[in-house]
Amino acid sequence: MGDNKSDVLQGTLDLMVLKTLEAMSPLHGYGIARRIEQVSGDSIVLNQGTIYPALLRLEQRGWIKSEWGTSETNRRARFYSLSRIGRKKIAEETENWERIAATMARFLAPSN
Amino acid sequence: MDFLRTLLSRFAALAGRRGRDNDLDDDIAAHLDLLMEEHMADGLSEADARRAALRDFGGITQTRESYRIQRGFPRLEQFARDLRYASRQLRRTPGFTLTAVLTLALGLGANTAVFSLLNCILLRPLPVAHSEELAVLQTVRNDDEHGSNHSFGAPFLRALERHHDGFETIAGYSTHPFQVRSNSSNVRVPGAIVSGQFFQMLETPPVLGRWITPLDDRDGQATVAVLSDSYWKTRFQRDPAAIGSTLTIANKPFTIIGVMPSGFVGADATYRPEIYVPVWAEPIVDAPYNAIESGYHSWWMRMLGRRAPGVSLDRANAALASVSDGILVESIPDAKWIKDARTHHFRFAAEPGSRGYSYMRDTFRRPLVVVFVLCSAMLLLACINLASLLMARAAARERELATRLALGASRLRLVQQLLVERLLIALLGTGAGLLAAPAVSRFLAAVLIGGNGDYVSLDTSLDFRVLVFVAVVAVVSTLLVGLVPAMRATSKGLNEQIKSGTQSIHSRQHRLLPRLLMSMQVALALILVFGAGLLATSLQRLHSIDLGFQPKNIVNLSLEMNKQSRDGDALVAWYHQYVDAIGRLPGVRATAYVSYPPMSGSIWTETMHAAASKAEQDIYMNSVSPGYFGTLRMPMLSGRDFEWSDTGPSGLKVILSQQAAQKLFPGQNAVGQSVIQSDGSAGNKSFQVIGIVGDIHYASLRKDAPPEAYVPMTQNTDHKPNYVAVTRVEGSVVPLAAAARQLASNMAPEIPAPVLTSMMTDIDGTIASERIMAMLAVFFAICALLVTAIGLYGTLAYSTARRTSEIGIRMALGAKPAQVVGLVFRENAWIAVYGSFAGLVVAWFTARALTSLLYSTSARDPWLLIASVTVLVFIASAASLVPAIRAARIDPSAALRAE
């Protein structure tokens, strides 16, 4: 695990979870956290526990749904997957994010 | 949409909280397991793998926290937790809790009770539709010393019924007990005589049958009656066949045509009629009196009107003023009366009448307002007391709170928690107060009604206005009372706390506020005690007025002879027979007749002058039988009493009171002289004075005795006059009552049973409002003293407890117990002294407001002031003594060890 730990904003964590679940479903909490770390190339190190409030949030909004299943180590755990609404929301949220990133890029570009 | 789903989910989560917690634990356990697997696969030992897994996961507790916050309504759950904590804290100190709750309950309960009464008498509108459109009519003269007059006679009623511009409906009514035949005897039932438009005006549809309408209110129509719901229930068991059946009122048949709903009270909320009859039937129910025939001599009705839609009160007033003169000319056949009225700018007027009209309002407005002020002072006292107690308690927990602050609690959170505790106390206090309020209210109402006639009823049920009032007061009190101590207690950092170590060093400012509060309490208590003292002294002086006769053990037996057939001499003979029979009953010392017993409220005046001079005097009259003066133990100063043989043919005779004799015949002996009574149209009557008796109070305790004259009942030319037998009794009244009734029913079965009242009760009734005020003031003063004593004791106990170690040191260093007592005592001495002083100053200036209510008592009576201060000082000392003595008993070594 690296030494640089950077904070991950709440909203971005939500989007990451959604994209993760879009790619691989169903996953349990450990799986999602691991995959996020992998995809981000280990530059983001989560306190993996923070995934759970985020999952709850998404589930409350109805963007993901959960089912009980058994983990690889034979323990009872919840497995999450995208709901129909969630799928739609991914497109919206992605668009939002790209817009923000573009605006920021303009600000940060060296003035010519 | 998302928000809604989230909200719903949170709500749902409230239900299965524990289940959800377990779910999360399962998830976490599974997650940790997988992490451990991963690390062990990397080659770590199990223990190391576990540690690494935990590190990767992050804080489990934090995760759980965030999860919970996300899941439910954290604020709500926090509040619930605070509530549980607060109730636990309160349960641990039952003494404090009880004191605080009782204090609040006393303050709130008393206030609520008085407010409901105020509401009922002064504020509550009549339960009819659009009561704000109603107006009470009055006659106004510019020089009327009593303000406007609300009484109307039949001529004005009929004229106004014809000319009521500005009003949609206009009606007159009079409340009156009716004599109704029930089974085989006659009973008196509260009734009302109402004009044709009465029910229309009040817009309340009958629950059965129909109203009295203007068509019913014409001479010679069928005699009809409308019942109240409660009478329909008790007399007819709610049988619908009651409509059309007959009720015998005053020995004449009345047909029942309708029943009004329960809750309908007519136009006077304090008198609930059971039967309504039309105005034209007044001579029937009032027989043998006929107020209608007396025309403009009899002012027996009140009038109300409902304003036409869109007409303001001013316009209605103007309309009334413009028709006044016309009605005057139309209704009054007496030119002199009209001229007199015009000179005094006589006119009709209207005032807002949404509450109907009640004489109680005038009588009790002032006392009730005084009482309300007292109550508010009481509530203020209670709040201050509570504040001091809470402050003391919070101060005692300062160390605990400072520690929690240091451990990371936010100040807001702590204050919130303390406020919840206050809120709990406030809720408990309010609840207790509200529970007690109806009982107190009923008690007050009973006292108010006490000497005020039959059938007065006060509906004191709590209603919306009262509840709002209490709620507002409770909330405001909590905020006021809870915030300051809470803020103060959390203001010191732990460092300072530890520095102040034994807490024996207190900055001056720290002590100032509690002391100020307690002083204010003492001052308020002093004012209340002083006020109570004033009112009580005044009452006592009223009680000890010499009335001129001996009222104790006198019983009034009222007879009503209207409904039987004897008259003139035959009736006098009957009366003679009856009074002799009463006189022979065991326990009866003396008995005689009088038409208006003293203090009964009725007044009869005539104008007289000595035969030789023209100087006229207003004389208060009474018609009496022989033996009257002896029965009342009035001195016979000269001449003789009447005898049964003093009948008409022997010449009109009169007995004068001493004052009347001196006014009519100054410097002479009045016995044997002649007095002329100016009788207006009936010519003059000449009386011969045969005796002089002492002066007595006629109708009022507070006013001096007026000049009085007595004529013999044997020479009374009225038809079927009613008399009251004043009877001096020894021992129990009960056998007399039964015997008197039996005698009456034997000798004249058609008349209603004679009504027994005690003269002392009547007399007390005339000073009812003074009595109430004094009683309530004393009640509040006692409460105030109690609350102050508790407060003084409580705060001193707390502060002493905190100084335990200091006291221990002092004693260890050689202080004697007496010195310790002195030390502790001094705390409260400061408060008592300053508080009393402040209270004295305020009392000195404000007592003036009570002057009009006092009788022969100065509002600045020095003895009372001294007495009040003494009482306060005594109470303060007593309250302070217990903690002081306890302080002196502190074992120095134990105290030091506890540090």
What is the percent of helical residues of chain A?
A: 40-55%
Largest sheet of chain B: 10 strands, mixed
Q: Helix tally of chain B? A: 28
Helix/strand order of chain A: HEHHEEH
Percent in strands of chain A:
5-15%
Helix content of chain B: 40-55%
Our Rg estimate of chain A from Cα atoms comes to 16 Å
Number of strands of chain A: 3
Uncertain stretches of 5 or more adjacent residues of chain A: 1-8
Shape of chain A: globular
Structure description:
The complex is a heterodimer of chains A (112) and B (899). Chain A is α+β, with helices and mostly antiparallel strands and 112 residues long. Chain A has 4 helices and 3 strands, in the order H-E-H-H-E-E-H. Chain A has helices at 10-23, 29-39, 51-61, 84-108, and strands spanning 27-28, 64-70, 76-82. Chain A has a 3-stranded antiparallel β-sheet with strand order 1-3-2. The longest helix of chain A has 25 residues, at 84-108. The model of chain B has no long low-confidence stretch (mean pLDDT 80). Chain B has 4 domains: 2-72, no CATH class; 151-356, no CATH class; 363-443 and 452-500 and 507-543 and 768-898, no CATH class; 560-753, no CATH class. Chain B contains 28 helices and 21 strands. The longest helix of chain B has 39 residues, at 411-449. In chain B, a hairpin with a 5-residue loop joins strand 13 (605-610) and strand 14. Chain B is 53% helix and 15% strand.
